[in-house]
Amino acid sequence: MTREAANSLLKTLEEPPEYAVIILITSNESKLLATIKSRCMKINFMPISDEQIINYLKQNNLYTNITEAMIKNCNRKYRKGT
To answer: The pTM is what?
Structure first.
């Protein structure tokens, strides 16, 4: 993120519209400015199993046109280290 983009984001975080919920997702927190991080709540997400993904999709009628390869890619980043 450029310095200009970071400053623009910071202004939005400081004065968000009433209707907005802003969710920032990053794989490298150290690249965010400290002033941006100080205005955010950090939530760590843990990977979920392929079985949990499949069950959720089936329960919500979202399983059509989903392949096993797509599901396996959902947690691919975390599986590389194991």
So the answer is: 0.56
